[in-house]
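Quick question about two entries, pasted in order.
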Amino acid sequence: KSYTCYGLRAGAQLALSKNKNVIDEFLDVNKFSCRATWSNISRGAMALLSQIVLDDKKLENLSLERNRYRHMLYKRAEIFLKESREIELEVFPYRDGFFITIPIKQDIEAVVKKLESENIFVVPLKNEIRIGLCSISIDKIYGLSKKIKQSIKE
C-alpha cells in the first residue's frame, strides 16, 4: 500500500541477532511458514518496487504521488467529519486512513439496504458500518453524512 499499488502486495521481514544459530533458525522456519501462508509476492510487484527504490527520480515521483493521495483522503475525511459534527452523526474516532466507522444501534441490515437503495455502499460489521473514503470522490462526500443519518433514522 505504501507504494500506492493497492493489491500488488509486497513486504519484508527482518531478523537481527548476534547469534548465527538464531538467524539460521529464523530463516529455516520462515522458509516454510511464510511460503505456506503467503507463497511468493508477484513478480510484477518485485520488479516494480525494485525499479522504484533504485531510481531516485522514480522514488521522488512516488513520494509526490503518495502525498497527493494522502491529501485527497484527508480532504474527504475533513468534509465528512465536519458535516457529521454539524448534524450530530456519531462517528468513531478517526485519525487517518481509508475508512470512517459509524456505530449502528438499530437494525444494521435495514440501514445497509436503505443506503444501497440510494447507491451508497458501505461495509457492514457487527454493530457499525464502514465508509470507504478511498472509493468516494470528493463531490459525493458532500451530503453523505446527512444521507447516512437519515437512513439510520428510518
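Here is the second entry:
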Amino acid sequence: ATKKSLDNLKSSYDALEKDSNEALDANIKKNRELLAELEAKQKAMAAEQDKLNKLKADLLKSSTRLAELEKIMADKEAAMKKLKETLSKSLKAFEGKGLTVTERDGKVYVSMENKLLFESGSWTVGTEGKKAVDLVGKVLGDNPDISVLIEGHTDNDKIIGSIGGGVENNWDLSTKRATAIVTILSANAKVKKENLTAAGRGEFAPLLSNETAEGKAKNRRIEFILTPKLDELSKLLNEL
C-alpha cells in the first residue's frame, strides 16, 4: 500500500512537473513575445520622437523666417510711407495743377493729368510738366530699390488722321507718352534704367466716365506706380 501510494505520489509529481515545465515554457515564450513587442514599440516611439524633434526644429526655423518676413514687410511699408511723404513734399508746388500722390496696397501712385504734361494729341512734354517729372526722378535717384511702372492713359476719343508725325490709335499715343516720361527720367544718371517700365493702356483704364469733359480730362493722364522690390520677400516665402 505504501509502495502504491509512493507510485501515485510520484506520478502526481511527474504530472505536476510536466505541467510546470509546460507552463514555464509558455510563460517564457510569452515573455519573449512581450519583450519583442516592447522593443518594437520602443523603436517606434524613438522614431516618433525623432520625427517630433524634427517638426519642432522646422517649426522654430519657420517661425524665425516668419518673423523676418514680418519685419521686412513692416520695413517696406514704412519705406513706402516715407517715399509718399517725400514725393508729396517735393511736388507740393504742383498741387491743384492735375497732380496727385497717393498710397495704396503697398505702392505709391503719382498721377499727372495731361494738362500738366502734354498738348492735345502730342507726346512732347511741356516745360512745366518736365519740372514735375524731373522732381520725381530726383526722388527715384535717391531710392534705387524702387521699381517704377509708367502708364500712359487716354480718353476714348478716336484718333483721326495724322497727329504730330503719326499716331495710329490711343494705344500708340499712350505708349509714346509713357516712353517720353521714361526718357526724361533716364536723363537723371542716378535713376536706374532697369527699374523703369513704360506701358500704354490707351482708353481702357479710365478713372471716371468718358461721358463728360471733366471725366475725359481726368482719364487723360500719366501714372507713376512705385513698387518696392520684393526679391527678399519672395525668397523667404519660398523657404517657409
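Reply: The longest strand covers residues 146-153. The mean pLDDT is 89. Hope that helps.
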